[in-house]
Design goal:
This protein is an alpha+beta fold and 417 residues long. It is built from 14 helices and 11 strands. It has a 6-stranded mixed barrel. A hairpin with a 2-residue loop joins strand 7 and strand 8. The longest helix is centred in the C-terminal third of the chain and has 42 residues.
Length: 417
Amino acid sequence: MELRESLRQALEALSDHPRRVVASSLGVFWGAAAIVLLMAGGAGLREFMKIELSSFGRGLVMMYPASTSSGFPGYRKGIRVEIARRDALAAERENTELIEAILPEHTSEERVLVEAGERVRRLDISAADHRYAHYRKFAIGQGRFFDASDVEDRRSVAILGFKAAVDLFGTAERALGGRIRVEGRGFEVIGVADRKGRQYMNTHRPDNRLLIVPITTAEAKLGYRKEAISKLLIFPRPGVSSEESVTAVLASLGPRAGFHPEDEDAVKWFDFTALLGVVDLFYAGFSVFIGIAGIVTLLIGAVGIANYHLATLSERSVEIAVSKAIGATNRALIFQTVIESLLVSGSAALGGVSLGLVACAALGRMASSQALPHPIVSLPAVIVTFVAVLGVAVVAASLPARRVSRIEISEALRAET
């Protein structure tokens, strides 16, 4: 009965000052909405980045030759390092316990001229062996990827990215089996890749606009040198660190390519999986920032709710004194104050969380698949936000509650008269 009566009186008190209630609860409302939206956005961005990184293949390390530096006796400074394809394959054979695969790759510094009938486009070219599709997760939607025999026989076959196929032939279906000329040399299109979403990161250029040919064919017909590959794609075995695999590869390549294995300037490398750690670190920092910002926002909201109670208390001092005179206890009056605070904060938090969820759903619909991060709502985060708001409500009610307990009946009634 006491709870029901306190709740009834609290609702009556709140209904007497609707504008004041709304004004005092806006901080909590917007704070709860912002916390839910930002936490969902951060989680969505984290997952999006992980998916982007995983699209390159598991544990990818990209290595590309540069120039030698000084400081190593017997080696001249400023010599351009050239890594032969046979040396890359030898490094793979020598480190099978550490490395699953090393893919040598030629890439074009500039886009090459590609003709299909009357249509002409400039595309980015990559030349690799038959393992490229598997390790780079280059899914084929039409036809097939070239196999080991195509590479061995230097066949003039080509794979087109989805956008490249559409640009040259109108549709991916028409591209399959079509003939193209690459810098004047004829090729048959034997495969078209699945369409990929917007790629924010890649190893060369967006996969949708790639032209991929066998590495031996590129060397035989397009002028690429087998003694000077553009880059190596290294895939360490599970449990092997990138640093360990790179050290082993450099130890194999150094004597063959004429650079010291410890020369950090001779060969540059980039670990794509290391970005996962950066993403996790960013998300952790982002979560801490949102937590601090949320606390500050909710404390500001607590000030608004406390001000509401103090303003209401000054107007109801006589009412409270009369209640005390007819037998109301301080405990009952304090309990009613806390109930009012919980009602104000709880309704504001519920509205704010609801707004945040609606905003997340709207952003999720607006973002096309794989193009933009989709907000990921965390139920624990929503619950923690709501509980934190209720905790703020109790804190906000503490000062007015103390004022209630200190109201003297005689002084309140004398001040009224």
